[in-house]
Amino acid sequence: MGVYQHFREEEHPFLDQVFSWLELIQRTYERRLTDFLDPREQTIIQSIIGPNNSNFQLRFFGGAKQSERQRAIIAPFYEEITDECFELVLLEGAFHEKFMSLNHGDVMGAFLSLGIDRSKLGDIIVSDGVFQFITDETIVPYLLTNFVSVKRAKVKLQRQPLSNLHDSTEQWQFYEKVVPSLRLDAVIRSLFNISRKQATLLIERGHVKVNFKVVDQLAYPLNEGDLMSVRGKGRGKFIEILGRTRKDNLKIKTALLKNN
Questions:
Q1: Taking the model in full, what pTM does it have?
Q2: Domains observed in the chain
């Protein structure tokens, strides 16, 4: 199994993809630009390539330093990589806050309804009557023509320089938690301060997502970089393992998305 034993079975196809990219780069000496990656996928690539690789360099960029979803460039160590190499475009639309409200999910739903894969969409920001999102420049002409409504409201997208990207309205509160294991039920109990029974019901009823996918297994093992969303409770992150306590429990760094 080698390196595969350190990752979940459902992550193995992504590992295969990363290894195929590395093989192609070694053979052709051409860099590889990925689609948008979630934080867990970014962590996987980093762990495979490592911080001191003499053959490859790895850079992430999603439009801003704080971007959650980012594209990666894997390239020979000698190549120069600039922000322009990531082929990102910022698109913006306006709506009347007085007559309607839009959120992150509404904008993403309108994007996906056009038949475009989620991997072509970066971060979404909604604030003060404006929504913005980062996307792949190759699909911008299609979006400018076909992205004409969100939540029954007519909209017109405009291309903006990346420097006009609004600051994210998301605010994360960081915590150190002690858990008996990295099982999903144990971590969400601690992070969201709920009972064992509540955690069990939420997971078994399909109300918990890990990295945007529903997980209904109580013992599902979490890894560093995982994002969790719990219906009615909010979003959280498992950032890293900090160590063990005297009782051999795990001390972990986590974060909760604050409600605005």
A1: 0.82
A2: 2-85 (3.30.1370.160), 88-164 (3.30.70.330), 172-257 (3.10.290.10)
